[in-house]
Amino acid sequence: MSAAPCRFEADGQRVVLDSPTAMPQASTFLWNRRMLLQLNCRGYATAQFMQPEPAKYAHAPTLEARTFMQPEQPYYAHHPGRFCYVKDEDGPLLFSAPHAPVNRAPDSFAFSVGTGDVAWTVACDGIEVELAVLLAADDVAELWTLRVRNRSRRTRRLSLYPYFPVGYMSWMNQSGAWRADLGAIVCQSVTPYQKVADYFRQRDFLDRTVLVAERMPDAWEANQAAFEGEGGLHAPDAITGQERLSCGDALYETPVAALQYRVALEPGEEQEYRFVFAPARDDAQVAALRARHLSARDFAEAAAATASYLDEGRGCLRIRTPDPWFDGFANHWLPRQVYYHGDSNRLTTDPQTRNYLQDHMGMAYLRPATARAAILHALSQQEASGAMPDGILLVEGAELKYINQVPHTDHCVWLPVCLQAYLDETGDDALLDEPVVDRDGRGASVAERIDQAMQWLLRQRDERGLSFIAQGDWCDPMNMVGWQGRGVSGWLSLASAHALGLWADICARRGRAAEAAEFRQGAQAFNDAMNAHLWDGDWYGRGITDDGVAFGVAADAEGRIYLNPQSWAMLSGAADPQRRGRLLAAVDAQLVSPHGVAMLDPPYTGMRDDVGRLTQKFPGSAENGAVYNHAAAFYLHSLYHVGEADRAWQVLRAMLTWPDAAECVQRGQLPVFVPNYYRGAWRLHPRTAGRSSQLFNTGTAAWLYRCLVERLFGLRGDGAGLRIEPQLPSHWTRASAWRRFRGAEFEVEIERVADATEARVWVGGALLAGGRLPSVEAGRRYRVRVELPA
Amino acid sequence: MSAAPCRFEADGQRVVLDSPTAMPQASTFLWNRRMLLQLNCRGYATAQFMQPEPAKYAHAPTLEARTFMQPEQPYYAHHPGRFCYVKDEDGPLLFSAPHAPVNRAPDSFAFSVGTGDVAWTVACDGIEVELAVLLAADDVAELWTLRVRNRSRRTRRLSLYPYFPVGYMSWMNQSGAWRADLGAIVCQSVTPYQKVADYFRQRDFLDRTVLVAERMPDAWEANQAAFEGEGGLHAPDAITGQERLSCGDALYETPVAALQYRVALEPGEEQEYRFVFAPARDDAQVAALRARHLSARDFAEAAAATASYLDEGRGCLRIRTPDPWFDGFANHWLPRQVYYHGDSNRLTTDPQTRNYLQDHMGMAYLRPATARAAILHALSQQEASGAMPDGILLVEGAELKYINQVPHTDHCVWLPVCLQAYLDETGDDALLDEPVVDRDGRGASVAERIDQAMQWLLRQRDERGLSFIAQGDWCDPMNMVGWQGRGVSGWLSLASAHALGLWADICARRGRAAEAAEFRQGAQAFNDAMNAHLWDGDWYGRGITDDGVAFGVAADAEGRIYLNPQSWAMLSGAADPQRRGRLLAAVDAQLVSPHGVAMLDPPYTGMRDDVGRLTQKFPGSAENGAVYNHAAAFYLHSLYHVGEADRAWQVLRAMLTWPDAAECVQRGQLPVFVPNYYRGAWRLHPRTAGRSSQLFNTGTAAWLYRCLVERLFGLRGDGAGLRIEPQLPSHWTRASAWRRFRGAEFEVEIERVADATEARVWVGGALLAGGRLPSVEAGRRYRVRVELPA
Question: Span of the secretion signal (chains A, B) (predicted)?
Fold first, then answer.
């Protein structure tokens, strides 16, 4: 096995990749409350901002479809990106930083990913270029620093060409030019529209894209075609064929923001340039970008503001384990990803209801007030029937788009599932009595609304007692199982049982015995129906189609076993110990793959008219046979739930990208986020199996964080207290954690000791009965020692 | 002035461009009834086919928006195209034919455009490559021939790599692989969908893209990224870095169809390869493509069938003038473009009503039965109010899209305007009595329906007697003049007057005196209203906004004068001779530009809230200040109408691309079609002024053809007879024409003679009174001599 292609630095707060070719898809992302910037190690980039729907200011070279965020974004020479060409005026040297478009093999390379910034350092023939970016704290603006250093022993005369492609903006009013008065290349356009109403909706759009330069360039080019000429992007005519850029404009032509700085550097000398790349509305906004963001002090303030912003989402857990990689990821990157979801709502105005609730389940551990507001906001959109809508509208004028226009039946399930986490973390039972007024003006308390949601789940059952699936449940593309109104979902039936059970417990705790009994009985009925109709002998089936065909069962050649029903049967209690043993064995034998636990197996290779879009997703992508981390996280949660700590650790480990060189490279994934999937179909397509989607939008993050806090380190709220019940993998002899909980801090040492036969917990030196601290005092610092059997 | 960059060959039936860089945007197109292939001289291509909406089988490298056909399509390295790399196995030579992506300067180059085929011949260092394509006659399939010749004096060992990028097909089931059993690279996908209903609509789509090879290649590559590697498209790793392509596949990756043939050629030796590039549904269709299209005989039959198909649209006129360039264009390319419009309906399922009617006005001269059917079909969609819809639906399930969802008020105008041409050409007055049943089941004759349409126009007037414009008239983007329901269109008022006048004439001829009087009175009322409210002193204004502001008037700094009102004031008779003199002078002074007659001047440089989208189109593009050829053609028609033959010739000449080197290169336009616009704003933006849109969808073609037939050569049907009234430019001393007319043929010689004081027409040696042949005998061949004053 070769050396790891990437490494942690700064106590895990930076990840550094040393090659532009080892993992050419490797990416990270920066965000603030208004924008998102995904950066690829080679310099390609995708930026979005909200106005109020997601919009772009750097485009593909063709008119792009508006779509949801796609996994495995393909890159190509003219893909949007941020680059700097470097030409040696006294020799043949030409390269581009970070790597594309010239793709010259560098003498050294580092893609250094921080939590709030990204920097590249690229050296070719004695010239070192550093490109670094961070985002303005509360503005839509990329703040770029370019540094060039002469690492050779002679004076070097260079031309530097920051090259920020802008792409095909619009078929209306597209142009680009240098504006000396603004010190910027200003590319203009008008977002296309045909209906008059759209004009009023769009007229305040930030339809300009600008590159504002702190230093006056020696020359510039605003015309993409003129920049390239016959040479193409790898050797643009404007660079190789002429001394100076032509200072040309783009007039209804594809614009570009390219500058030229001519510089002579003595040995060891360094020069620094700063730029702001951003959308803008008009001249005044361009001037404001310059005034607000372009000085060295502005950059430093933005860095500090970013750090402060990220600090708000630093999470409630710091750990130290035998695996420093795991520590770095868990302490910095995982809470960061949870925070991104919860604070940005994935840069959408209509998050899927299940995503919105789960994302804010994660926020319960970071910033509980945000989670609380989200639960109330979601419930304010509950329908009169008790059903939850397919998406939660976040801004005035937003509408349900894409998949949210397709009816799914699982949204109610997530209310108690996510609420439980929030209540455990905060003890804020008062939330249950909060009144929530819906769009029809009907008022009801949170508890009453959840009652109604549970009753809706109970009503949406067929004569067997299983949940109708309509055009899908959590698995979006399973859109033809029940579109005719008869098909049912095994997973959803189990998830309903679990949700009902959780809610029954909360009702019982709150003294609502009748409701508790009703919901507990409902949960039991779901479990019984599953055991009667979808226990397939060694595992639970996935569902039954409109035509009465059970699927996800042993008789199927493809899609024979699905992971989700097994996980949730353990959570809901449908699986007794004997069934649990069988289904775990089936998962081990059929779903555990070299790249993680697959969501189903074998992957579909062709269309099954009664399953739907799922079967048309390529084997190995997304839901079809992939290691779909969200499902793997449910499985993880369920394994901890039944005390399978070692199995859980294996699943957890496989979900994360370790610096194991082979798997890391195969995945092409830096350990800076957990992606929504790794490709599956490992028997069918070993070449691509394991590859990361590079898509960081996923409910996985929140569940992983929950599992780490509540299960692996076992520091879970419980009524007024804290349950202390770590489930370390057996090969860990010790670990420690800092936990913030309801205003208190816990310093936890966990150790395996030879003489322990069961877990023993001391708090402040006193042995704790049942591992449960009955109450927690805010502001206090607790010292906890846990001894586990060896 | 340098030499012309392109030339006619084969009596004008081919146009040859000798450089890949002189006019890098130059393009042509091939089509059959099911598909369209636009080809750029450098090898870039855009193909569309109907299923039933326009679809693609070679894509951009990113998810593209579905849109109407865009002008000035920007090209970039990964744009779809058809290429062949050539590598010398014994030396450093690497080039690609036609030119991209390597862009090596060739030793010789020819882009040879035929009416039914396109061929490139490219030579580098003694290796000559010929690439040629034609379309299957009645199938969606490109038939490609690759020939390579050794023009050097030594044996050459080469690898040839046909490279057909397929691009980003879909986020569902995208893949590509060589299929030995089919002898093809087969790229698969599923057109994305989320709503169940779309599945049923799309499941028979041709979702594969295949490159079927007649000869077994030595190696292949189906993976775009693997093909390129670090080298990029100009020097792909798969070609420069290895002896053989890797025979790899694409699995949810961007696919490509690349083959490798290794060949040793003796001096003078030639090898030929044939390919079919096409979409397909399944294996059987791929096998059928091979079986039906791949042999040399199949190619020859396709060429013959294409020639036969094109012959159906050869038109009714052959001319010989002092200008052979003009002859070539008028005899072959112009009728071809008219035929394309009328036979393909622009590859749309909902053509704009005005386009549909005007395209079929052109068909009246080519294949009148098609024009007749189109008029009846359009009228079958007339609304109960008499209004015509914004688009005509051509297939079951089609719906109004894009601009056709925006209410425009001019559609009724085109009924008499186009009908007149049809009736003049065919004498088929029986059409007027044809019953037409509309969607509500109401039956009415054609004449009654046109009465209703005219009455609708008369109703849609404001208190001044001017036509409401709603969200636009012929000028689509003038969408805010009257969106509040009050604004009026000067042009539309004049067009209504003209339409009413034409229809009144037809009514009078048919003995419907009352209707004739009603409509003539209506026409007069429109003309009077225009003269009262929108005669601005030297020209007619364009309209009056919702807020009562006249625009297109001398008081305006931008958009001061519009061409259309002037043209139609001459047609409608609103302009008396004095006004006509003034408006012609105004057009000469303000709208005549070095690149043709602009549609308005000065171009708008900023938004005018009361005009609309027009002002947001970049100055020089499309309607905003461009030489918009459709408007120029109206002007041409109106000039002939008032006997301004020399002015007309200047306008006509400027609309076509002559082999004048400077202007031809500035336009970047081959004389194989007339584009919808040349850019304007010549004072503001001289660099780009004149540039062609490269968009061949335009009503210009039909109007130009009509002007050539009926006016320049003056061979216009008139009741039962033929009016012979040429309007040659004064510098032509002679010209001749062959004219097919109602089954007869006319051989016409026109000559200027010194002693003539007025035109004299002889038919069969007999002098014709008034230049009108009272009746025409089908099957007969007439010899016509016209003497014009010198």
Answer: none
